[in-house]
Specification:
Structural class: alpha+beta
CATH architecture of the largest domain: 2-Layer Sandwich
Shape: globular
Bound molecules: zinc ion
Mean pLDDT: 85
Distance between the termini: 68 Å
Number of helices: 9
Number of strands: 6
CATH class of the largest domain: Alpha Beta
Order of helices and strands: HHEEHEHHEHEHEHH
Length: 247
């Protein structure tokens, strides 16, 4: 009986020992392979970025506010208007960079001209309602007229011009707001240098399926130099930047 118990005990010890060996080997293998094959997730990349001291982008950064058909201007959004020239206004925090950009372009022989700066809610509503009325006069229902109008005039509350961070910029030689502006010297200068002053081409060609807006080589949006450099170098939109970089 005693011997049998002893045998059982030694068997038990051997089993435990085997288990410990197997578990140790498995752990070592796991650690070894995981150091090679651990999938690099976006979170891990973001973490790497933080550890390397790269810039973090916060969803609360006023420069990055995302306004589009799906994200209208928050009710509590506030800012202070500053004067660009005459009665043209924009968010006052943008003025220094904007003036710097206009000056730098001038030094390169490019005369930039702002044709549409900040627009208030009342003006946006007026433009929109006027369009609806015109369609309704042709016999459309209100709902129908609203739908058609929203394809050509930005729905009030969803225009970046209303928060003073967007500017339509052209030049003396080319003042029409069409795709041709992108081919002018001013259009090319802006595409190349605007990010140095914190601006991005907000509605690029080929990204209409993301922005929901057709190519607008004249519409520039302020996001700050760091974000603008990434967006323009990687040829992405503000929507894609939010997906990849904003926490
Ligand atoms: Zn615009």
């Amino acid at each position: 009986m005693v011997i049998r118990e002893y045998n059982n005990y030694s068997k038990y010890c051997k089993n435990i020992g085997k288990r410990i060996v197997v578990l140790t080997v498995m752990s070592v293998c796991f650690l070894f392979f995981s150091s090679f094959s651990y999938p690099i997730t976006r979170d891990a990349q973001k973490q790497d970025g933080k550890e390397n001291g790269q810039t973090e982008f916060s969803k609360d950064d006023w420069r990055l506010v995302l306004i589009n058909k799906q994200n209208s201007i928050p009710d509590d959004y506030t800012f202070t208007l500053g004067t660009i020239q005459g009665n043209m206004k924009c968010d006052e925090r943008v003025l220094d960079d904007l003036n710097g950009m206009i000056q730098a372009a001038g030094e390169d022989g490019v005369g930039l001209m702002i044709c549409s700066p900040y627009r208030d809610m009342e003006r946006q509503k007026m433009l929109f309602n006027r369009k609806i009325k015109r369609y309704m006069n042709t016999g459309m229902s209100y709902i129908e007229a609203y739908r058609v109008s929203s394809e050509t005039v930005t729905v009030p509350g969803a225009s970046e011009h209303q928060i003073g961070l967007a500017l339509d910029i052209v030049c003396g030689e080319y003042t029409s707001l069409d795709a041709g502006f992108g081919e002018t010297e001013a259009g090319k200068w802006l595409e190349e240098h605007s990010c140095e002053y914190g601006f991005i081409l907000r509605y690029p060609l080929g990204k209409e399926y993301i922005t929901g807006i057709e190519y607008e080589p004249w519409h520039f949006r302020y996001v700050g130099e760091e974000a603008a450099t990434i967006i323009m170098e990687e040829e992405i939109t503000l929507e894609e930047f939010w997906e990849e970089y904003v926490d």
